[in-house]
């Protein structure tokens, strides 16, 4: 029996209310801090810090999109979201949070969310079953990693670029922009992703 959770990318942009932990200022060559929290009991991170660094290297125009990005956090499990974005008004900086997953990797989403992402899930080779209560998806480790990097991370990066450059203050417009940002870059990123990480539909991750 799988654990039923309703995974999604977060639709809420936090306006400066997030409490920072550990280091407060961007550090390192790229100007941001990369942190890792404990995933929580019965959960694990499907991506690593090394995965983040490797993925960033294949994102075109990363320096422009990540301007004023303060933190990237491998965060604890959050059953209502796969990722979140926080914007700090005072410093005009942002932070991306990528949530840990339940160990079983089963997820149950609403039908509406699945339908909006069906092409993405099928491109990644994710197995799924529809029911009257929603859609149960069975990810492999490789598929979960690809989904988190190619879609969730890019979606939250879209929120960051939106808030620091496009200035959409309306939540709905910001969500639409972030989703378009991620979806429009999938085809461009996927071949490079496969070269670096391996094909998620084949269940093998390349040696790096």
A few lines on this structure:
The chain is built from five helices and ten strands; from the N terminus they run E-E-E-H-H-E-E-E-E-E-H-E-E-H-H. With 208 residues, it is α/β, with parallel strands linked by helices.
Task: Give your account of this protein's structure.
The chain has 208 residues and is an alpha/beta fold. The protein has five helices and ten strands. α4 crosses α5. The protein is globular and about 45 Å long.
Itemize the secondary structure elements and their pairings.
Blueprint: E1 9-15, E2 33-36, E3 43-44, H1 49-56, H2 62-65, E4 69-75, E5 83-88, E6 93-99, E7 101-102, E8 106-109, H3 111-123, E9 127-131, E10 134-138, H4 141-166, H5 171-197
Helix pairs in contact: 4-5
Order of adjacent strands in the largest pleated sheet:
1-5-6-4-2
Our Rg estimate from Cα atoms comes to: 16 Å
Which blocks of ≥5 consecutive residues have pLDDT under 50? 1-29
Write down how many β-strands occur, each being a DSSP E stretch of 2 or more residues: 10
Shape: globular
Q: Helix amount, in percent?
A: 25-40%
**Structural class per helix/strand content?**
alpha/beta
The separation of the N and C termini measures 34 Å
Kindly state the mean pLDDT as a whole number?
Answer: 83
Helix/strand order? EEEHHEEEEEHEEHH
The total of helices stands at 5
Strand content: 15-25%
Largest sheet: 5 strands, mixed
Q: Which short descriptors sum up this protein?
A:
five-stranded mixed sheet, single chain, 5 helices, alpha/beta, 208 residues, disordered N terminus, 10 strands
């Amino acid at each position: 029996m799988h654990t039923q959770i309703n995974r999604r990318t977060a639709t809420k942009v936090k306006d400066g209310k997030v409490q920072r932990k550990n280091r407060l200022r961007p550090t390192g060559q790229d100007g941001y801090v990369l942190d890792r929290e404990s995933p929580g009991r019965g959960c694990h991170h499907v991506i690593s810090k090394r995965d983040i660094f490797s993925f960033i290297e294949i994102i075109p125009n990363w320096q422009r999109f990540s301007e004023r990005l303060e933190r990237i956090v491998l965060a604890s499990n959050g059953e209502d979201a796969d990722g979140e974005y926080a914007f700090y008004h005072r410093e005009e900086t942002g932070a991306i949070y990528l949530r840990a997953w339940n160990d079983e990797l089963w997820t149950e989403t609403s039908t509406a969310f699945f339908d909006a992402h069906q092409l993405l899930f099928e491109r990644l080779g994710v197995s799924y079953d529809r029911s009257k209560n929603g859609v149960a998806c069975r990810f492999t480790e490789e598929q979960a990693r690809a989904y988190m990097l190619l879609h969730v991370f890019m979606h939250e990066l879209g929120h960051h670029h939106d808030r620091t450059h496009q200035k959409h203050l309306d939540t709905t417009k910001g969500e639409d922009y972030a989703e378009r940002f991620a979806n429009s870059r999938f085809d461009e990123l996927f071949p490079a992703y496969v070269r670096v990480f391996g094909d998620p539909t084949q269940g093998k991750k390349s040696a790096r």
